[in-house]
Structures are given as C-alpha cells and as structure tokens.
Amino acid sequence: MSSLRNHRLLYLFTLGFFLLSLLNIHLAVLGLLCMTLPFYLLLRDGKKTWCQGYCPRSSLYMTLGKHHRSSRKIPRSFTQSEVKYGVLIYFLFSLLIMTFSTLRVARGQMAPMLIPRFLIFIPLPVHLVPLLPFPEVPLWFTHLSFRIFSMMMTTTTLGLILAKLYKPRTWCTICPVNTLSGMYLMKKKDASLR
User: Fold this and answer.
1) How many domains does the chain have?
2) Please, are residues 84 and 174 in contact by the beta-carbon 8 Å criterion?
3) For residue range 61-97, what is the model confidence (pLDDT) as tens digits?
4) Structural domain boundaries enclosing 54
5) How many whole angstroms separate alpha carbon 15 and alpha carbon 78?
6) The 4Fe-4S ferredoxin-type domain covers which part of the protein (predicted)?
7) Among 43, 60, 65, 136, which residue's Cβ finds the most Cβ atoms within 10 Å?
C-alpha cells in the first residue's frame, strides 16, 4: 500500500490512455503495455510488482475512491474462485476473439470493427473521429486498436462501478492480471517445495 501512495499520480496514465485514444484510436495499442508489462515485472521480480505499486487503474480507483467510502463488504465470491476465475475465462476469451478477428481482418475474411464495444458484444453507437489524423493505416490495425480500446474501457468501467459499490480496489480482487499473477506465484511456490 505504501508503494501505491508513492505512485498516486499513476492514474494520469489511465486518463492519458483514453485521451490519446480519443485523439486517434490507433494510439489505443498502447494498452498492450498494460497487458504485458505486469507479466514482465512478475517474471523479473518474482512478485506482483505491477499490482502492488504501478497499476494506473488501481491508482485511478484509489484516487476516486478516497472521497467515497462504502460500508458494503466485497462479496466472498470475489475473493474466492467463482467470480475471479469467471472474469479470467471471459477476458482470455476476449483476447482470443481479439487475436483471431484481427487475423481474419488482415486476411480480408471479415470487415473490421470500427466502433467500441462494451463486454465484447455490446456495440456502442459512438463513432470516434480522429482529431489527430495518421497517414493510411491498415484496416487490421484499426480493428485491433478498437478491440484493445474496448477491453480497456470495459475493465476500467467495471472497476469504477465496483469501486462505487464496494471499496476502491474491488476490481483488483477479480482482475485477470492479478489472478494470473497469483496462479503463477502459487505454482512457483509449489515447485520450490518439491
């Protein structure tokens, strides 16, 4: 927690991600850093370095949550396995859809997705007009950018809702990055005991 206090301005990266994506959706590929950097740090440090001090969304939830205190307890199913693994399966499924649909767009087998979607399937009637136009970009890259933006928007929105309903870092209990990191560390610990 002290690490989070030292990095409390990290929420600006979350806001910056959405601002850059609104300037030009292709900048949403920067979201891949939030999907890969935690695992690099996990492998390098052997602990949840990202979750414990560098996650910009956690910083956002803590910053917004310091003015709101809910008396509701986080449901047990969040801290146990039901919801946690359900969210993990859902987002692994999302990554699979993102990957294969991008490959299909690149091969000309399907049209690109050109609007954001909430929870993969719910199209939002929002057309993002690039305020910072780029030269010609391949359609598969545009599709990938919208998919990444949609995932980041979905997880951030769910995190904000959970922060309002329960405690600021409730999302962290079911976050796929936290769950996968925990599974890795548990497996590593089990291997060292043999």
Assistant:
1) 1
2) yes
3) 988 877 777 778 888 888 888 899 999 999 999 999 9
4) 2-193
5) 26
6) 28-75, 156-183
7) 60
